[in-house]
Structures are given as structure tokens and as C-alpha cells.
Write a structure and sequence with these properties.
Layout: E1 41-49, E2 54-62, E3 74-80, H1 85-99, E4 104-108, E5 122-131, E6 135-136, H2 141-148, H3 154-157, E7 162-169, H4 180-191, E8 195-196, E9 201-204, H5 209-226, H6 233-240, E10 257-265, E11 274-280, E12 291-295, H7 300-312, H8 318-325, H9 333-345, H10 354-363, H11 367-376, H12 379-387, H13 393-399, H14 407-414, E13 420-423, E14 434-440, E15 443-446, E16 450-453, H15 455-461, E17 468-474, E18 487-492, H16 497-509, E19 515-521, H17 530-534, E20 541-546, H18 550-555, H19 558-566, E21 570-575, H20 577-596, H21 600-612, E22 616-620
Parallel strand pairs: 3-4, 3-5, 5-7, 7-8, 7-9, 18-19, 18-21, 19-20, 21-22
Antiparallel strand pairs: 1-2, 5-6, 10-11, 10-17, 11-14, 12-13, 12-17, 15-16
Helix pairs in contact: 1-5, 7-8, 7-13, 10-11, 20-21
């Protein structure tokens, strides 16, 4: 039908209906009858995208219309993200730009697989993360390919493309490929004659990337404001009165769920819990070496800690706060909706960005608290008082009781809970229907002395059989070779997960090539999968690096490693990126340097060559 309408009776509930159309060039109008007052609303459109291969919920935030006389360029923010950081930054920039009076939109880079439309009145803000060893993220690959291609319309239309770039990378891993995606795209666009309106920024995940982005975004918004004609102050003030747009929810796993078959602590004697969880019903067919993305929830312990802080700042009422703090059952529809919103859509325990700290400063009614929060939003203050102390937004609210902020704005500022990624520990040949994951419950000291658990691992550790969780597949290039060649596998802690799957598959397929597993763990209570590995029917030599530096363990097998590589063997490493990954790369570089009679730098180049030709594979994360 040309028109589709539904009468909504005002209630504190969520209304939903289904409307199928082949034409997505629709408009949405809201007519408010009688004296009903609606401050904000959210329209979620579910669509089937051939690019994603399935349904994808995309939230569209509709705000009250505002007029502005500003002639500054519109902003089109395009994010390429693998783990959600670039998307979080995109949402943050959208909120601050809208508050400054900008006409701004946010887009998944996959939406521009066919290219960026030339528009001299729009600035394209490209937030591009690196993945792996200097590769574009999965959702940005089509766009980056289009930009690098000489056969499309970009070379002839580039003069009408205005842009700026913020690149995301990590100097802690592959420093020579640091932020290479953003740099290459910037160089390419400039070579074609596109107009870079503001200098490229770079964020270092090996440092304090939130502070890097905050500094760049504030300078960019200052530049944007300078493009407005004089006399647009009223428009800016009017824009600030508009509700902050809600952040887009990650589309990585939205709508995909899996059923928990088992969830077992494999190390009951260890002070560090290591769990194995088995899932059924994850959409799609996995391949050995793939990952699973999980979006966790704030569990009851987080809600209990959050309740008094949210009530104190006026985000929720005292009655609901009391129920959440005491973990009492909530029964009213309105309270259920708010509780669900806090549990599933607000990142309460992640590190708040400098922009969040600055927003709290603006909402503090006590002068001394506003001054302290403002100081803490600076780069030095943020690092010293927020990041190093590992404070979350609940800590900030508790320490600054004069802050008053609505639940809507707090949710928009914090952003959604980001997905966490786990290597699959089962073989698709042995168990094609069920997926096994391995995780260790993360603990850290926060706010001085308090011990807290990681959001996702704590959430998973409280999951029971038959429960459902939000989970979906993420393909990987961490693959067994198609032929029967030697394998060097280097694992750190729970990095044993994919190698458990590899050995399962090698046993099932009766592999005959040599395999060396160097397995680093702290003590015998954390020797996960040890009995299975020692009973492998395929060739497997295990070096138990119990409490031993992983590079020292590798150095002890230098001759074997050189022989395996000379025979065309593959190298696989899985563990932490900064400590474990750096140590593995250093040892491998030394081993290859001795083979060539050169320096460790030459050995590193030889290792990178193995990476380029597909014989060295990494699965590293911190």
C-alpha cells in the first residue's frame, strides 16, 4: 500500500507491527492527537540486506524538527569497525555534532559498498579501523576497494567529494602497519583530487584511543563551527535543546541467538575460572577456526550496583532503584521496560569516554564537582583519574552526586554494549551442529581496591543450560591448510581454543604431518584440554610451557621450527596481543634471522613474508 498507518494508544509500552514493502524510499510521519506529549521515540526498521545475507535491525532515531540558519556543511559519518570501537566513536561524534547544530547522519560503511555519492555540500567523516595486519574491517572492505578502484566514477567525480578521516589502529602490534588503512585511503583520495577539509586523525589502541579521538573530534567540531556564518548562535542553542540521538546498536549479532547446551568450569581448583560453553543454533555454518561474537548483558550484580547511582542522578525513580538494588522481581510493564533497557542497551561498566566525562561535568550542579569532572575530561586528567583508576560511569556518578542527567541522554552518551569475540574450540568436521567456546573470567582492580569482573565473562559464567544468548558467527582466515603440511601452533592461556579444534580435526581426518604445540599456561590447574591433547591420534608434540616465558619455550625448539618451515610448514599463534603476541614475534624473528645469517630485523621481515603468503596466521587480542 502507498500508505500504512496505525493508531497508537499512549501507554508506557513498546508498540511493534510488521510492514513489508519493496520500496524503501518511505517517509515517516507522527501525528499527536489531543494532549498527548511525546518527548522522544525510536523507530526500528528491520530489513533484509543482500550485502549482509540476512535480516538486520537498524534503529532510526527521529527527533523533533529544528530549524537552523547555519550554512555549515552537512556531516555524513561512515564507520568501518570490527569490534565496535569505530562505531562507538561515530555515535559519539553524531551526538556532539548534533548538539552543535550540525545536520548529521551515521552510516555503516557497508551501506556505501557501491561508493560515496559526490556532494559538495556534505563532508564525509570516515572512521576507519585496521583489522588483522593492516586490513580494512569486514564491513569497510567493499568501500575501501571502491575507493582504490580506477574503473568506477570516483576518479572523475572526486573533486566534489569532501572528507576527513580518523584512523584506528594499534602500535603495540605490527607498528609498521599502524593505521595503514586510514593513511592509504587518505593518500588515494588526495591523489584523485578529493578535498580533505580537515587533517587526518589517528587513534592508538596500544595507548589511550578514547583520548586520541576526543582531541581530534573536538578540533574537528571547532573547525566545523568556524564554517558557519556569524549570527547562528540561536540555531545552536535551539539544537542543544533537542534530545540527544540514541546510538545505533551493533548489527553484528542483532537478532541472532543460540541455546546453551552446557557451561562448565574446567579449572575448579584454580583461582582463575576457565569455562567451556557449548552452543546450539548459532545461525549459519561455521568452519574450524572461525569466531563467535557475543553481546552480553549487565547481570543482576551490575544492576544492583547501578541502581543507587542512576536514582541519585535522576535517571530512574527511587522505587525502581530499590527493586533493582535488592534484586527484587519487577512486575509493572514500565519498570520491566526500563530494567531491560538498562540491562541490555547501556554499557555501564566499560571505560567512559572523555566526552562522557565532559557531559557529566555540564550536568553537575555543584561548582567543585563540575570543575573536577572538566579537569578529568582533559587528556592528562582522563588518563590519571579515569583510565588508570579503571573507573566506570557508575563510579563517576557516585563520586559526583550533584550530576543530574536523564536516562535517555545517559544511554545515548554511553553507547550500546559492544560485542565480544571468542575463538571456536570445536571442529566443524567433528561437530558441525554445535559450537564450543573457551573463556576465562576476567578480574581487575578498580576504584583503588575493589575487585570487579569483566562484563562478558561474568555474564557467561552465570548462564545456565537451556538459556539463550545473543550470538552470531564471524568468519576468520585462521584456517588449517588444505594440504598435509607441518604445523607450528603457539598458544597462550585460553588461546588453546582453536588448537583444540585443529587437533580434533586432524584426528578425524587422519592427518600424518608433524605438528608442534607450544602451550603456555601458569600452573597445572590451568592445563586446559591437556588429557585430550596427550591422547591425540594424529602426530603431535606438546611442549608444556608451564610458567615459562613463551619466547624462551620457542627458542628451545628453534631447530625444529626452522626445519618445519623449510618443509613448507604453517605457523599459528593465539593469545594476548601485547605481551604474548610480541614475545612470539620476537622469538620467531630471532629464529628466522639465524637461518638467514642476518639481524633480527631481517628475521622479522622473513616472518612478515610468511604472513603475506598465508603461512603465518594470528588470532591475537587483549
Amino acid at each position: 500500500p502507498a500508505e500504512f498507518s496505525r493508531r497508537i494508544v499512549p501507554q508506557p509500552l513498546t508498540y511493534s507491527w510488521t510492514y513489508t514493502s519493496l520500496d524503501f524510499a518511505y517517509s515517516f510521519a507522527l501525528q499527536i492527537a489531543n494532549t498527548t506529549i511525546m518527548n522522544a521515540f525510536l523507530l526500528r526498521v528491520a530489513r533484509v540486506s543482500p550485502l549482509r545475507g540476512g535480516a538486520c535491525g537498524r534503529p532510526l532515531t527521529l527527533c523533533r524538527a529544528r530549524s537552523t540558519t547555519a550554512a555549515a556543511p552537512a556531516l555524513r559519518i561512515i564507520w568501518g569497525s570490527q569490534t565496535g570501537t569505530a562505531q562507538m566513536f561515530a555515535d559519539q561524534l553524531q551526538q556532539e555534532a548534533a548538539a552543535a547544530g550540525a545536520s548529521v547522519s551515521v552510516h555503516d560503511a557497508l551501506d556505501f559498498a557501491a561508493g560515496i555519492p559526490p556532494d559538495a555540500q556534505t563532508v564525509n567523516v570516515l572512521l576507519l579501523a585496521c583489522y588483522g595486519v593492516g586490513e580494512p574491517t569486514d564491513n569497510a572492505k567493499p568501500l575501501v576497494k571502491w575507493i582504490m578502484d580506477d574503473t568506477n566514477c570516483l576518479p572523475s567525480a572526486a573533486k566534489d567529494v569532501k572528507y576527513t578521516i580518523f584512523g584506528l589502529g594499534s602500535s603495540a602490534t605490527h607498528a609498521d602497519r599502524y593505521n595503514v588503512v586510514g593513511r592509504q585511503v587518505d593518500a588515494r583520495l588526495q591523489s584523485l583530487g578529493a578535498h580533505c577539509v580537515f587533517p587526518r586523525g589517528e587513534g592508538d589502541d596500544g595507548g589511550i584511543i578514547e583520548a586520541d579521538f576526543d582531541e581530534w573530534s573536538q578540533e574537528f567540531l571547532a573547525w566545523w563551527s568556524s564554517q558557519k556564518p556569524q549570527g547562528s548562535t540561536a540555531a545552536k542553542q535551539a539544537a542543544k535543546a533537542v534530545e540527544t540521538p540514541a546510538p545505533t546498536k551493533s548489527s553484528v549479532v542483532e537478532g541472532d541467538t543460540a541455546t546453551v547446551l552446557a557451561n562448565i568450569n574446567l579449572c575448579p581448583q584454580s583461582s582463575r575460572e576457565t569455562w567451556e560453553i557449548k552452543l546450539r543454533g548459532v545461525s549459519g555454518q561455521y568452519t574450524t577456526g572461525d569466531h563467535v561474537a557475543i553481546i552480553p548483558r549487565n547481570d543482576k550484580s551490575v544492576l544492583s550496583r547501578a541502581a543507587p547511582a542512576l536514582a541519585q542522578c535522576g535517571a530512574i525513580d527511587a522505587s525502581l532503584a530499590g527493586k533493582l538494588e535488592s534484586q527484587e522481581t519487577v512486575t509493572s510493564p514500565c519498570d520491566i521496560a526500563v530494567r531491560e533497557r538498562i540491562a541490555s542497551a547501556m554499557d555501564l561498566v566499560g571505560p567512559p569516554s572523555p566526552a562522557v566525562v565532559r557531559a557529566l561535568a555540564e550536568r553537575a550542579t555543584a561548582t567543585n564537582e563540575a570543575a573536577q569532572l572538566t579537569a578529568w575530561s582533559s587528556r592528562e586528567g582522563y588518563i590519571d583519574n579515569v583510565r588508570n583508576e579503571r573507573l566506570d560511569v557508575l563510579d563517576l556518578l557516585k563520586r559526583h552526586p550533584s550530576v543530574r542527567i536523564s536516562l535517555d541522554e545517559l544511554q545515548a552518551r554511553l553507547g550500546s554494549i559492544r560485542p565480544r569475540y571468542y575463538s571456536i574450540a570445536s571442529s566443524s568436521v567433528v561437530d558441525p551442529d554445535d559450537i564450543t567456546l573457551l573463556y576465562r573470567v576476567v578480574e581487575h582492580k578498580a576504584a583503588g581496591t575493589e575487585t570487579r569482573r569483566g562484563l562478558c565473562t561474568s555474564y557467561l559464567a552465570h548462564i545456565s543450560e537451556t538459556d539463550t544468548i545473543a550470538a552470531s558467527l564471524r568468519p576468520s582466515t585462521f584456517r588449517l591448510p588444505a594440504d598435509n603440511r607441518p604445523l607450528l601452533m603457539i598458544a597462550g592461556g585460553t588461546g588453546i581454543a582453536p588448537f583444540h579444534a585443529f587437533v580434533q580435526e586432524r584426528d578425524a581426518t587422519r592427518a600424518t604431518s608433524d605438528a608442534l604445540l607450544i602451550y603456555g599456561y601458569r600452573d597445572p590447574s590451568e592445563y586446559v584440554y591437556g588429557e585430550f591433547l596427550e591422547q591425540a591420534t594424529s602426530p603431535l608434540t606438546i611442549h608444556k610451557a608451564e610458567g615459562e616465558p613463551i619466547d624462551a619455550a620457542m627458542d628451545g625448539h628453534a631447530d625444529t621450527i626452522r626445519r618445519m618451515l623449510a618443509e613448507g610448514g604453517n605457523v599459528y599463534m593465539c593469545g594476548g596481543a601485547a605481551g604474548f603476541g610480541s614475545a612470539v614475534w620476537s622469538s620467531l624473528s630471532r629464529i628466522l634471522a639465524k637461518e638467514s645469517g642476518g639481524s633480527e630485523d631481517k628475521g622479522r621481515q622473513a616472518a612478515k613474508h610468511l604472513l603475506q603468503v598465508g603461512r603465518l596466521h594470528e588470532d591475537l587480542a587483549d
